[in-house]
Sequence to fold (121 residues):
Amino acid sequence: MDATVWFNPACGTCRTTQGILAERGIDAEMFEYLKEGPSRPEIERVMKLLGTDDPRDIVRDKEAVYRELGLADASDDQILDAMAAHPVLIQRPIVIRGDRAIVARPAERVLELLDDRGRDE
Fold:
């Protein structure tokens, strides 16, 4: 696989990102993270690839469960645990390619990852 996408098939941005990758000939694994739920260590690994150590950078703070769990004032550890327990809290789509990742919102941001990858090789 050329890339992995943390993907929700019901999300229009995810589907657009999938289309952009296909148009570019990128063979991408679509990881349906809402079904399989990444572990906390996997979330932390992807955060490093994104270049952040702040889970707030990838948390979906508009989700009802965010409010229900009182995450606005939560610690990083509490947010990471909540994302592992409730993957709907994880921003999407996240595209991972090599040792880099990007939150493709808007979907065209995936091109930054592809273009950067091309310059590195």
The first strand starts at residue 3 and ends at 6.
